[in-house]
Amino acid sequence: MAVNRSVIRGVGAYLPKRIMTNDDFSRIVDTTDEWITERTGIKQRHIAADDELTSDLGIAAARQALVRSGIDPVDIDLVICATATPDRTFPATAVRIQAGLGITKGAAFDIQAVCSGFIYAMTTADNFLKTGLFKRAIVVGAETFSRILDWSDRGTCVLFGDGAGAVVLEAQPQHGTREDRGILSALIRSDGRYEDLLYVDGGPGSTKTTGFLRMNGREVFRHAIQKISGVIEETLVMTGYTPDEIDLYVPHQANQRILDGIAKRLGVDPKKIMTTLAKHGNTSAASIPLALNQAFEERRLSEGDLVLMEAMGGGFTWGAVLARW
Ligand code: ACO
Fold first, then answer.
1. Per-residue pLDDT at 90
2. Which residue has the least CA distance to atom 29 on ligand 1?
3. Which atom of ligand 1 is found nearest the CA of 25?
4. What is the pLDDT of residue 1?
5. pTM of the model
6. What residues are annotated to the active site?
7. CATH of 182-324, one of 2.40.160.20, 3.40.50.720, 3.40.190.10, 3.40.47.10
8. CA separation (Å) from 123 to 47, 92, 98, 208?
9. How many other C-beta atoms can be found within 10 angstroms of the C-beta atom of residue 240?
10. CA 48, 49, 51 angle in degrees (round to 5)?
């Protein structure tokens, strides 16, 4: 039966120029390169310049994705930006990205699911494209997490970085089988009971301030392995694939030990897991498209490959997208 599938036509990314190494952190908080490397796998992260906004990062990533897709911006009718660090409380960062790209038709809106934002945004775009409501979408993950970090809290400030990634999706008729190109499965989940384990302690509707990120790292770690493994297993059962049949895993980059734990639990060959943590840190909603972009640039993706993306973030929110490249 003919169906519309959301096919990935292009991927792009942008990282701010300024790099902060672990040694740089050891000069501002009581930490060491050894501690950060051993506990997280992170060696450095990029930090946006004062005059660089989340939308600027997103526009740069989207431009590169558009060029690679060969699609004219005027033919894009949906822009979704996943971010927890919008330029302003409103309007959505997505409309600023839309305007920056010269797109004036269709719709643009933000998705707020923190580190799972890109998975939520891909799932949302996929549903619009499958139903035929929109034809071509840009899905952006863009963050300036450096702006919501408590720079005196060594337990959190060393973990995050800034950046953006984007993909261009196009609805294309396919056969309705698991051999199709495009998104084959997209699952999103949440459980608000865990809000207090990872949150920002401010907001326009509560403190009238932006607030700072707060986290119970141990608990987040435990839930991440459980919840991400669960949603990957669900995706595999739904599509009938085994972990071995996935060509590349492109996970949200939170912590190397989380990635290792999931790989061990599911029996995934670590060589099949795209890892950018050492260079980018955790860039929240931007981490998956940044890793996807790196995989593309390293020629680790060929047409027909099965790519599994997954994430967990504040909320908790979590999810997975399986796509054929
Ligand atoms: N440098 C040196 N020591 C530190 C640092 C630091 N940067 N941060 C914390 N410590 C200390 C703590 O103060 C504590 O000291 P104490 O024993 O004297 O009290 C000690 O290290 C152990 O602290 P824990 O928090 O128990 O350390 P843990 O081994 O759990 O590692 C970490 C902390 C890296 C945050 C880990 O829990 C983790 O990665 N959790 C996952 C959180 C995550 O990835 N969040 C991202 C957002 S959610 C997501 O993307 C999935």
1. 97
2. 39
3. 7
4. 80
5. 0.97
6. 115, 252, 282
7. 3.40.47.10
8. 28, 19, 19, 31
9. 8
10. 115
